[in-house]
Recover the amino acids of this structure.
């Protein structure tokens, strides 16, 4: 019989969270895991990483386990783990919304015209 030890949630500053998220993005880009072949342009990938980071930070702030949040979101714990780690490169909006909802958060999507001088 194996027993799991529960890790104590460590409270990180916003600056440390941002630094870790940026490091994770750079690390994944450096490995070549984020390519145009996978249909995830860099800016979109970075935005997804920010969303993932915010969801994970809120889960940890609430002291909730992945298993608890996954169950509330109608998914399994390994899927939530992959989502938080960035291994799900193209999560659906529905999946992100369910996780946000399980955490008592809102998920906002914004579409706006690009601010470029090369419009036709």
């Amino acid at each position: 019989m194996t027993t799991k030890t529960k890790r104590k949630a460590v409270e990180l500053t916003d600056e440390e969270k941002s630094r870790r998220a940026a490091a994770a993005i750079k690390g994944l880009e450096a490995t070549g895991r984020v390519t145009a072949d996978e249909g995830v342009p860099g800016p979109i990938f970075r935005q997804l990483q920010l969303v993932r980071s915010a969801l994970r930070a809120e889960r940890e702030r609430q002291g909730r386990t992945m298993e608890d949040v996954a169950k509330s979101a109608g998914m399994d714990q390994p899927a939530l783990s992959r989502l938080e780690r960035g291994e799900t490169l193209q999560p659906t909006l529905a999946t992100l919304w369910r996780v946000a909802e399980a955490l008592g958060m809102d998920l906002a999507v914004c579409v706006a015209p690009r601010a470029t001088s090369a419009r036709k």
The mean pLDDT is 80. Helices lie at 14-30, 42-62, 66-73, 77-85, 93-102. The chain has one domain: 14-102.
